[in-house]
Prior knowledge:
five-stranded parallel sheet; Helicase, Ruva Protein, domain 3; 5 strands; alpha/beta; 3 domains; Methane Monooxygenase Hydroxylase, Chain G, domain 1
Amino acid sequence: MSAAQELEQLALRYAEKAVTLDKQGKSDLAIEAYQKAVEALLKIVKLNPNYELNKIYLQRAEAYKRRIAALKSSLHMSPAAGTLEEGTNFEDLILKETPKVTWDEIVGLEDAKKAIKEAIVYPSLRPDLFPLGWPRGILLFGPPGCGKTLLAAAVANEIKAKFIQVDAASIMSKWLGEAEKNVARLFDLARREAKSSPVIIFIDEIDSLVGVRRLEVGGEVRVRNQFLKEMDGVLDKKNPLRVYVIGATNKPWDLDPPFIRRFQKRIYVPPPGYKERLEAFNLYTKPLKLAPDVDLDKLARLTEGYSGSDIMDVCQSVQLKVNSEVFEKYEDYMKAEPRPITMRDFLEILERRKPSITREMLTQYERWSNEFKAL
Length: 375
């Protein structure tokens, strides 16, 4: 067993002991156990700086530190002040207003849009036409920055759904033994809200929640089992709910096979092609003052492999470059106007701003898509 594995198991034991002591009201002993769990988690991060679960371990360590502080404070207060923190308040995660994103604001991705409309929008408009039911689990996979979150927001807007956006860390970073309860609370909330309107649960980085792990730590097995149970409840044709689970991942190959099957629609969200990149440049440069020599067609051809997010960053960087001259060259910068953006400005930024997607990455996505896609 590696040092990291030993530390993971040590952190698990200390954390479970801490939670038990905490619930029993044994604050002094709980503080000591929480502290040892924190030390073990931080050692894991230090030993393996690139470990995929470090984000969760750091958040968990911070949660334990806050609990230690609360317990220390409660020792000087009434016993009731030291009660264990409850799980995530998922009610706060419901967007107060339906996302305003529309299909027209999403450049390209016509296959993905069509698949989502067929799976969610059309059945919501005419459920009487779908006696066999319709998909309620949608997986969006592909490189980062290519529109997965925008697609989820657009469909929520289209069907006027309540939108609950969470990530794996918000579920997994709470108290050991509480994470699976967080999953149950999340779906209970969705079922309650679905009585008055459709509900979309959007889980970003879902591979962090239900991915294959070499070693399960901190109740991950219980969380995965609870998630499977909740997904089966959502998918049950005998008990149709207006609850949809949309998962997004940059690492679909990390997903456990049982979870892949629960997502009846598995939709590849690829980087933009030439036409989509040209549309993106037209969209993002529309509010900018461009010089006549700016050739958006050439920029679209030069940015093969760039994601939609990359292209927006390029346009934003050009804007920053030109606007900074106003502050650096003019004493009365409040009255000065920036010069038009030139093609040279774009080319200089492209020299410094390389694509976030490689050919090797695309090959991996395409291979997984060919094996598991379900449009």
